[in-house]
Amino acid sequence: MENRYLVHVIIRKDKKLKDGRHPLNLLVTLNGETFRMNIKGKRLKADEWNVKKRKPTSNCKNSSLVESELNKEVAKVEKFVLESNLKNRTITKEEVRNFYYEKDLKYDDFFTHYDDFLEKKFPNIAETTKKPYELLKTQLKEYRDYRKMKVLTLNDMNYSFISDFFHWVKVEKETGNSGLATRRKNLITVLEEFVKKDLIRKNYCKQIKRFPENEKDVFLTPKEIRKFKNADLECGKKTNGLEFSRDLYLFGCYTGLRYGDIMELEWKHIKDDHIKKVQQKTKKLVSTPLLPEAKRLLKFYKMKGLQGKVFPHRANATLNRDLKDIAGMAEINKVLTFHSARHTFGTILALNKVTPFHIAHVMGHSDVRMTSRYVNSNDEILGNIMKTVSFQN
């Protein structure tokens, strides 16, 4: 949007100083909003100013010099607005004031507050959760430079800028819907904190339409879990690795633990038929009841005499590669990742009529709404519910 503007000099006849002179102001109309800015050190008597021509009269000493200096003040503001138009950047009166008075823009710098946000948030979140925030910051800086903006201010975070940013990330960075959805979620979180602190009035990122997920959350049905568990994994030297990956995945299905929490799991976390552990991602203590299937796996690895950690380390990338092979051997036509084990756990609980509240509690969700994906993910659940519906009294 091009900024519409008009700038000229006025005399403040409503303000008379002790020496009988009146201050001169710049009267600025910007995008339909009019405001005044004091011109430092410029004061004239009423008869020294021509109101109609908006310039000093002959009664003013050095009138030509004064007129030239005033024209420079007008040109200074006009140049700032014109440069903003060339950058296709909508500006506010606050930005014009800050520019004209040469205020320190550090307070309005978006990244100053972004860094403050990260400093306070990072101690409470996992390393894997930090990376998307750091990537968002990097790409916002790259986009700022792409737009040739000297500084990205809080006022710049309007709908137009944010919408254009996501388009740039999608096209220039070749980012898919999943990545765009993560950027949107993180930026909403950041801006929501800014709203709470009265740094900005509105979180425009909320108005950005949700990016559709490329695929629905993948999970295994009870029948597929049996096929996965009983598949013949004989594959030469790869057999032991595939079997270990299968055990880890099944343990995730039986407990709902994330990859990072399983890799960090120690024997001391297992107490009274529960896993009691602070989640790596949320930093919250979660108590997960142990199902018989999970107990059998724990007993098997306990017999191996491992100290400290329950399971040996296995890279997430290796697990995901193995899961692709195991799914093929089990004739399961789904693209499995290790995180789908957690979705499987939640879905199986819902299938067994566990309430969303209790699913959220066991999985460590802070909001029951996060559990809705499991309740709505299985046609069998809905089918069983519909069987109980009757229009008969």
Automatic annotation (TrEMBL):
Keywords for the protein's UniProt record, in alphabetical order: DNA recombination, DNA-binding
Protein name: Site-specific integrase
Source organism of this protein record: Christiangramia oceanisediminis
GO biological process, one term: DNA integration
Residues annotated as domain Tyr recombinase: 215-387
Family: Belongs to the 'phage' integrase family.
One term of GO molecular function: DNA binding
Pfam families: Arm-DNA-bind_5, Phage_int_SAM_5, Phage_integrase
